[in-house]
Amino acid sequence: MQESLTMKKLFALAAFGASLAIAPVVAHADDDAIVLHRQSVMEGIGAGMGTVVCVLKKQCDLPQKVVIRQAKTMHFLAKMNLEAFRAKTEGPLGVKTTALPKIWSDWADYEKDNKEMVEATEGLIKAAASSIEPQSLGPAVQALGKVCKECHDDFREKH
Ligand code: HEC
């Protein structure tokens, strides 16, 4: 039983290897990992934004301390985001990316946009710490949303 499973695994591996060998372009495994990493950082920020907007619209009833923690996580991820994008990735890639090459040719601008996101998440932490009512949370979420859009407009393929 054990043996036949192992054999099955070996055959599967062999088939996988063969499929790689006949693939028309060989993707850069490291670059793929870099793309997946930076996308997961962005997804984390996106998920945080979803939660905060849900609280703002009063569709999610979360305690204030959870909202503060969420804002802190977004702040941490925003700082991490700069490093996640620092390495220039070049095709052919095995994974889909919407990042524009302009990120690396205009790195100073990209860095500036990222800094604005770091500052806007700081603003979100402060706002949430003061109150999670719309008059406090609203302007901070709006300011952050503007920063997301600005960078996506400049550095991300339209999709
Ligand atoms: C400094 C620039 C910059 C800022 C600021 C920024 N993003 Fe992004 N974001 C990008 C780039 C570039 C991509 C494309 C990454 C790729 O496909 O390799 C991206 C992709 C994404 C994705 C898709 C990830 C995936 O799985 O493909 C989400 C979701 C996202 N961003 C959410 C946000 C939110 C929400 C904010 C604001 C809180 C934000 N981003 C702020 C540059 C930025």
Automatic annotation (TrEMBL):
Any Pfam family the entry gives: Cytochrom_C_2
UniProt keyword list: Electron transport, Heme, Iron, Metal-binding, Signal, Transport
Free-text description of this protein's post-translational modifications in UniProt: Binds 1 heme group per subunit.
One of the GO BP terms on file: electron transport chain
Binding site for heme c: 148, 151-152
Organism: Magnetofaba australis IT-1
Taxonomic lineage of the native organism: Bacteria, Pseudomonadati, Pseudomonadota, Magnetococcia, Magnetococcales
Protein name: Putative cytochrome C, class II
GO molecular function annotations of the record: electron transfer activity; heme binding; iron ion binding
